[in-house]
Design goal:
Chain B: GO terms for molecular function: ubiquitin binding. Chain B: This is Coupling of ubiquitin conjugation to ER degradation protein 1. Chain B: InterPro entries: CUE. The complex is a heterodimer of chains A (167) and B (187). By secondary structure, chain A is α+β, with helices and mostly antiparallel strands. Chain A is built from four helices and four strands; from the N terminus they run H-E-E-E-E-H-H-H. A four-stranded antiparallel beta sheet of chain A has the order 1-2-3-4. In chain A, strand 1 and strand 2 form a beta hairpin. The mean pLDDT of chain A is 89. In chain B, helix 2 packs across helix 3. Chain B is built from eight helices and no strands. Chain B is mostly helical. The chains are: A alpha+beta (167), B mainly alpha (187).
Chain lengths: 167, 187
């Protein structure tokens, strides 16, 4: 029952994202047989070291979506970013359920709620790439590099971007 | 005293009967569940890590967990799984409760990375991930529009899938071309 609600909602979001895709974003289920498992491509935001890159991520939705948020994980590696765990998992407030704020720095309005959407998540992740949140680094190494050795950080990101495109 | 003995005996016999019924039932259930467990393990043993590896090598894009799930369900037939993939049916995503019966990432991988098989298969660029190397090399793609066509939605499921895939491929190839031009410009 609940999962058919989720499926309908996901299908609806898929349709919206296909007919009216936001700039630099492609997303949809890997196969429509499983609406709970998506793959998304995000373009690196301009005027950042991620510019020109394309990043693939998988989104896994819970059965009670949209009550609970999906998880998002970059695949193929290569997203060197303070808010992305070394295994690719994205750590961003919109992916955190409203009740749960282990870090005590997020406003409830920034966190997940059913009025959010896949599109909003992907747009948030895009702006996260441009502006790391230094308060709760998921990748401590990357955060440190970003803070202390910015040119090195940017070079590393640019290298990873090229690698990701097979260059 | 003599009156009490039988009246004591009957309830205690009844109690004994009830208790032994539950004890037996407990034993029975336990046996059944442990038998089920060993059956599960037995079936699990069918998933040979070598087979998983074999399929993963043929189809690096596949999720190891999906492979194990499929192998477990078809009784460990590499051929059947391969066939399934080749006919384009793809593998089913196992239910979240599915515990891969074999420890594919052996010991040295910490628990936090249960998705490691995926990750490992993913440690590649987007070109190889989406099998775009042929398209990436062919100059014909140059003529493709930079921006994939918008507002495309088909009533047909396969068609939708195809459109999405094309948008994905185009996005990657366009980025790659742009990046190549840029780095050539820099040289």
């Amino acid at each position: 029952m609940a999962s058919s609600v989720a499926q309908k909602r996901l299908f609806h979001e898929y349709k919206n994202l296909s007919t009216n895709p936001p700039e630099g974003i492609t997303a949809g289920p890997i196969s429509e047989d499983d609406m709970f498992h998506w793959e998304a491509l995000i373009q690196g935001p301009e005027e950042t070291p991620f510019e020109g890159g394309v990043f693939a991520a998988e989104l896994k939705f819970p059965r009670d979506y949209p009550l609970s948020p999906p998880t998002m994980k970059f695949i193929g590696g290569g997203v060197w970013h303070p808010n992305v765990y070394p295994n690719g998992t994205v750590c961003i407030s919109i992916l955190h359920p409203p009740g749960d704020d282990p870090n005590h720095y997020e406003h409830a309005s920034e966190r997940w709620s059913p009025i959010q959407s896949v599109e909003k998540i992907l747009i948030s992740v895009m702006s996260m790439l441009a502006e790391p949140n230094d308060e709760s680094p998921a990748n401590v190494e990357a955060a440190k590099m970003w803070r202390e050795r910015r040119p090195e950080y940017e070079q590393k990101v640019r290298d990873e971007v090229k690698k990701g495109l097979g260059l | 005293m003599t009156d009490e003995e039988p009246s004591l005996n009957i309830p205690s016999l009844l109690t004994l009967a009830v208790v032994s019924y539950f004890v037996l039932r407990w034993f029975f259930n336990r046996d059944e569940s442990s038998a089920g467990g060993s059956r599960g393990r037995g079936r699990g043993n069918v998933v040979d890590p070598a087979q998983v590896e074999q399929i993963a090598q043929m189809f690096p894009q596949l999720n190891t967990r999906d492979i194990m799930w499929d192998l477990q369900r078809n009784g460990g037939s590499v051929a059947a799984t391969t066939e399934r993939v080749l006919t384009g049916r793809g593998l089913e995503t196992p239910p979240p409760s599915f515990q891969p019966p074999v420890a594919i990432p052996p010991t040295n991988i910490p628990l936090a990375q249960t998705a490691t098989p995926v990750q490992k298969a993913d440690a590649q660029d987007l070109i190889s991930r989406y099998n775009l190397s042929a398209k990436a090399e062919s100059p014909a793609t140059e003529s493709e529009p930079e921006k994939p066509s918008k507002s495309s939605w088909s009533q047909n499921k396969e068609e939708r899938q195809r459109i999405l895939q094309k948008r994905r491929d185009d996005m990657i190839l366009a980025a790659r071309r742009k990046m190549m031009q840029k780095s050539q410009g820099n040289v």
